[in-house]
Specification:
Strand content: under 5%
Number of strands: 0
Number of helices: 11
Structural class: mainly alpha
Helix content: over 70%
Order of helices and strands: HHHHHHHHHHH
Shape: flat
């Protein structure tokens, strides 16, 4: 409820200023830059010119509220964790937020520019592109989520090793399957062109390797942390009862 209220509060502020129309214009800039001069996007639905900017504003609200949303999710599970695991809260929240935003920024500044220009140059001269704004937003949201989640791979790898579910050795053994899976996933969530698939699969493989390196460093410290937790639990057990 707190996370939802935070998103709603930011949405109200963004709705007042700078307004849904300006936010949508920023989102549409990569597509508009690739269209022929004088060409604009179209809206085929009756209420589409109103609903699409609202949807984009709601997405922007969620992105801005993401640190608070992640903190609320962590606070829900934190009481069941050891003290050294609870100390991971701030680094995980900050890194998760930054990686998700980095994934979206990579998608907006690199992927959109590359893919839209590729499509514009590939299209026959007899065709005048006029993308529908609703289809464009759905396409953009899909890629934003795909790249945002993809850039969270190092966090997922670290958590798997930290919780003892998977070892670093096992992660290295399945590296080949991960690479194949990355290209399969990229083929499913991206447009049917090789360029956009590579732009998603390559960062996914690179981030997986970064996650393995970070998890390897954490795995070396894990025995010492477990011993410290066991010592703390023993001291708590040995304390005399209070009157």
């Amino acid at each position: 409820m707190r996370a939802a209220m935070a998103v709603l509060g930011i949405f109200v502020v963004l709705f007042i200023y700078p307004g849904p129309s300006m936010i949508y214009d920023i989102l549409a800039q990569p597509m508009l830059a690739s269209l022929p001069q004088g060409t604009r996007m179209i809206a085929t639905g009756v209420i589409t010119p109103f609903m699409v900017p609202i949807k984009v504003t709601l997405l922007a609200s969620f992105i801005l509220a993401l640190p608070f949303v992640l903190y609320q999710a962590w606070a829900f599970v934190a009481p069941g964790l050891y003290r050294h695991e609870q100390r991971l809260a701030l680094p995980l929240i900050v890194s998760s937020t930054l990686l998700f935003l980095l994934g979206m920024a990579f998608c907006y500044f690199v992927v959109f520019h590359t893919v839209f220009n590729f499509i514009a140059h590939f299209a026959p001269q007899s065709i005048t592109p006029a993308p529908d704004i609703e289809a464009y937003v759905n396409f953009v949201l899909t890629l934003f989520i795909a790249f945002g989640v993809t850039f969270e791979v190092p966090i997922a790898v670290i958590l798997l090793v930290k919780t003892g579910m998977v070892s670093v050795k096992k992660l290295r053994e399945v590296r080949g399957y991960v690479i194949v899976g990355a290209f399969v996933l990229a083929a499913v969530v991206t447009p049917p062109d090789v360029l956009s698939q590579i732009l998603l699969a390559a960062p996914l493989c690179l981030l997986y390797e970064i996650g393995i390196l970070a998890a390897s460093a954490i795995e070396k410290r894990k025995p010492a942390e477990d011993e410290a937790d066991a010592g703390t639990a023993l001291q708590t057990t040995d304390e005399p009862p209070q009157d």
